[in-house]
Design goal:
352 residues, alpha/beta, Quinone Oxidoreductase, Chain A, domain 1, Rossmann fold, seven-stranded mixed beta sheet, six-stranded parallel beta sheet, 10 helices, 16 strands, 23% helix
């Protein structure tokens, strides 16, 4: 079975460096189907913004390890006890790459994202076949294609983002970072009736997409001072909600300065695990009373994501597709930023 993995040292961006990972397609054994498991023939697996970071090893993971968690496909086999959701062979599905155990303290305390056993079942989705637990699988709506269905996981992150924002109609909102999560989050926030909806993003094509998806303003941080531009947009008061989706250490330091008094600042991306930044507690937390938080994965969000995803504009996210054999080329294209999303076709389906 073919699978895309980080298999050895070498650099995606800098081939002469010997401190990073390298993408290759490898053969791996097919996973064993347990009684409560579902076997899926994978149609598409999208490259997540975190996948190139994993290849670059900014989180300190040790190779080899498999890649991919934004998956769609068709059920080809069910374990004999995988009966609770009414899934059937032939169903078109998406899924959650995390299997929450349901029994630990956090799972039973309404905090699945901190599941103490969530790392025991991480099976890479950028493969020809995957075997996931029944609890991870969701049947796609009839009006969502397999190509768009692999975006169920990132749409669930946008849903989770809304849970953390606790949006009120009319609030002024800024999003830093116009990658897939930033653009999906922008669409979700637009549904809530945000005002002065602003994207901060250096790549012109992503700023154009933000306008297409309903942004009122865009800021190019290379050409404009982010704080000055934000204050001009908000009459000097800042944004009620500021969300970082960039994961860039260069971008995040100015965000407290553009958050309004009493506002909410959400750091919602993955950052280098040794990154730290200065933060003036007196100015931002005591004097301005801002709330600072983040979010990790998407607990309790998948059913709602499945119900709402047909309302998202997703065509621009699924326009660039590579075959699984061309995965290395796909990752090289991903880091150019030319496309908001790149898909890996793991199998072909007639009339998909």
């Amino acid at each position: 079975m073919k699978s895309v993995s980080v298999v050895k040292i070498g650099s995606l961006r800098h081939p002469n460096e010997e401190t990073r990972g390298k993408v290759q397609v490898v053969d791996i054994p097919e996973q064993v189907l347990g009684d409560e498991d579902v076997k899926i023939k994978v149609a598409y697996c999208a490259i997540c913004g975190s996948d190139p970071h994993l290849v670059e090893n900014i989180f300190g993971w040790e190779a080899p390890f498999g890649l991919g968690h934004e998956v769609s496909g068709v059920i080809v086999e069910l374990g004999k006890k995988a009966t609770k959701k009414g899934l059937k062979v032939g169903d078109r599905v998406g899924g959650n790459f995390l299997k929450f155990c349901g029994t630990c303290y956090y799972c039973q305390n309404g905090q699945q994202q901190f599941c103490e056993n969530g790392g025991e079942y991480n099976r890479p989705g950028m493969s020809e076949y995957i075997v996931w637990h029944e609890s991870q699988i969701y049947k796609l709506p009839d009006n969502v294609s397999l190509k768009k269905g692999c975006l169920l996981e990132p749409v669930s992150i946008a849903v989770r983002m809304m849970d953390k924002v606790e949006m009120k109609i009319g609030q002024r909102v800024a999003i830093c970072g116009g990658g897939p999560i930033g653009l999906l989050g922008l669409q979700a926030i637009k549904m809530y009736g945000a005002s002065a909806l602003t994207l901060i993003e250096p790549i012109a094509e992503r700023r154009d997409l933000a306008i297409k998806f309903g942004a009122d303003h865009v800021i190019n941080p290379i050409k404009k001072n982010v704080v000055e531009a934000s204050m001009e947009i908000t009459d000097g008061r800042g944004f009620d909600v500021v969300i970082d989706c960039s994961g860039s250490p260069k971008a995040v330091g100015a965000l407290p300065q553009i958050t309004a008094r009493g506002g909410k600042l959400i750091y919602g991306a993955m950052y280098p695990n040794d990154f730290e930044m200065p933060f003036n507690l007196y100015q931002y937390c005591y004097f301005n009373e801002i709330t600072v938080t983040g979010f990790y994965v998407a607990p309790y969000a998948f059913p709602r994501a499945m119900q709402i995803m047909s309302r998202f504009q997703l065509d621009d996210f699924v326009s660039k597709v590579y075959s699984i054999d061309d995965a290395e080329e796909a990752f090289n294209m991903q880091i150019t930023g030319m496309y908001p999303k790149i898909l890996i076709r793991c199998n072909e389906f007639e009339g998909e």
